[in-house]
Design a protein that fits this description.
The radius of gyration is 24 Å and the shape is globular. The relative contact order is 0.16. The protein folds into 2 domains: 200 residues, Rossmann fold; 203 residues, FAD/NAD(P)-binding domain. It starts with a strand and ends with a helix. The protein is α/β, with parallel strands linked by helices. The chain has a 6-stranded mixed sheet with strand order 3-2-1-4-18-17, covered by helices on one side. Strands 6-13-7-8-9 form a 5-stranded parallel sheet. Strand 15 and strand 16 form a beta hairpin. The structure holds flavin-adenine dinucleotide. The site of flavin-adenine dinucleotide (FAD) has 38 residues, from helix 1, strand 2, helix 2, helix 5 and helix 6.
């Protein structure tokens, strides 16, 4: 039996750990958050209960495997709890990094550090109750701009329009896209959740505004076409729109955030774009010299995530560097590559969003974790037994460093506490949204379990 460290317990890490464990090795998970699940727990829309419950059940099954070990509340990286060198010193036979893409893209705009400007992932972490984001200021106002036109932008719009505690103050959410409606990235199911907030006449007017510019790139964006392809609800005879409004601004690239006297965003300057058709049929947005200034008090960037450089893995052009295989350029490569020495990092792998940021749904991250884990298993075949610290020794080393790792046993106690709290509050599900409350709940549940075990008759 060999020991594999898995850094990150989102879908990619959990399913990688499962595969490694089922192949007969120890899988030792290190996770930044107390709870496992990553974006499946703290990104997926809070009301997608069925999906969330299903995934939590699958993660619990992974943790139930006897040779899967879990250390939550342990963040790996430079300036975090343990460095990669600290992990290596514990001599695992292999490490697979599945820590997702924890950085966020921004546009580097003047004024973008004004208050009221947020990265999408931080914002969804906040409303999904991930500490410390859960208790930070993500206040929204009356007029909110979301930059980006994918499913994440629609999730955030849904929250602002329907479920946010401050939705009563929301007047309008505007989705801003640098290209036209034919480059929409969200899918029909997602827009279906928010379609009734769109005013048909307003969207038709926006499409008319850009129609000629899109036609020059051979794109038909007449309301008739676009309603049919992307907004089918607007063609329903009995469609009526409800407040707050959801609007769109196409062919617009933000160029500056203009704060008000209180330091909060007050306006957004956007450049109007033309669309240029490339020979391969794709389009390129090109500023046409016109600019507009729009009133917003909140701005959210939903333009994808990037890798956290502090993790300490070598960086490549698109994230953590992986080895490329010139003979199979399209095959995914999971092994970490060290550009400084032009050599692979032996026994070190990446998978999931850590390998390719913001790529696909949970099923894809799971698959990537499993394929990555298979590479690890293949690699281990040629490796000696090794001298990895045992999971107990890892736990002792973490505690010796003054860390407070959360183990599988702690997670089980937290689960009991959360179920009791949900019952008390007549909720389907309850989760604590700060770390001290989670630690207190674990301690209380442990005391209760100890008391109950003492009361059991001895047979
Ligand atoms: C807003 C949003 C909504 C989504 N909605 C859906 C949906 O409805 N349906 C769907 O199928 N998919 C959805 N997805 C996609 C899905 O969440 C991802 O495909 C999947 O979670 C990626 O899995 P991962 O394991 O690669 O990364 P993540 O889920 O990001 O997991 C990374 C894990 O690594 C840990 N970690 C991070 N850094 C460190 C570190 N330095 N040290 C230790 N641990 C670390 C984190 O705590 C986390 O547990 C959504 C994504 C987003 C952003």
């Amino acid at each position: 039996m060999k020991t594999v460290f898995v850094v990150g317990a989102g879908p990619a890490g959990m399913f990688a750990a499962r595969k490694v464990a089922l192949a007969g090795h120890n899988a030792v998970l290190f996770n930044r958050d107390i709870k496992p699940g990553g974006l499946a727990e703290y990104g997926i829309y809070p009301l997608k209960d069925k999906m969330k419950f299903g995934l939590r059940k699958q993660f619990a099954q992974v943790l139930a495997l006897p040779n899967v070990y879990y250390f939550g509340n342990v963040q790996i990286g430079n300036g975090y709890d343990l460095t990669i060198a600290d992990l290596d010193a514990m001599q695992p036979s292999a490490v697979i990094y599945t820590s997702g893409a924890q950085g966020a893209h921004s546009l580097g705009l003047p004024g973008e550090h004004s208050s009221g400007v947020y990265a999408a992932k931080d914002f969804v972490y906040h409303y999904n109750q991930l500490p410390p984001y859960s208790s930070q200021d993500f206040s929204t106002g009356r007029r909110i701009a979301i930059i980006g036109i994918g499913n994440v932008a629609i999730d955030i719009a849904r929250w602002l329009l329907q479920d946010s505690p401050s939705r009563a103050t929301t007047e309008e959410v505007t989705i801003i896209a640098r290209r036209g409606p034919l480059e929409i990235k969200f899918d029909k199911k997602e827009i279906g959740y928010v379609g009734r907030h769109i005013e048909r006449a307003a969207l038709a007017a926006e499409l008319e505004r850009i129609r000629e510019r899109c036609a020059r790139a051979n794109q038909d964006v007449s309301p008739q076409t676009i309603f049919a392809t992307h907004f089918p609800m607007l063609n329903e005879e009995d469609f009526t729109s409800i407040p707050p409004r959801l609007s769109f601004r196409f062919l617009a690239s933000p160029t500056a955030v203009i704060p008000g006297p209180d330091g909060r965003i007050a306006q957004l300057e956007v450049a109007d774009n033309d669309l240029v058709l490339r020979p391969d049929g794709s389009t390129k947005p090109v500023p046409n010299g016109q600019k507009s200034v729009l009133d917003f008090d909140t701005l959210i960037f939903a333009i994808g995530d990037k890798h956290d450089e502090k993790l300490g893995l070598p960086m490549g052009p698109d994230g953590y560097a992986t080895q490329t295989d010139p003979d199979h350029p399209n095959d995914p490569v999971f092994q970490v590559w060290d550009p400084a020495h032009s050599s692979p990092l032996t026994g070190r792998f990446v998978a999931g969003w850590a390998r390719r940021a913001s790529t696909g749904l949970v099923g894809i991250a799971r698959h990537d974790g499993e394929v990555g884990a298979q590479k690890v298993i293949d690699y281990l075949q040629s490796q000696p037994e090794g001298n990895a610290l045992s999971p107990d020794e890892v736990l002792a080393a973490l505690r010796k460093k003054g860390l407070h790792p959360v183990t599988k046993a702690d997670l089980a106690l937290l689960g009991v506490a959360e179920r009791q709290e949900a019952e008390k509050r007549h909720l389907n599900y309850f989760k604590y949204s700060d770390n001290p409350s989670m630690f207190q709940a674990i301690a209380r549940a442990r005391q209760q379990a100890d008391k109950e075990s003492k009361l059991q008759p001895v047979s």
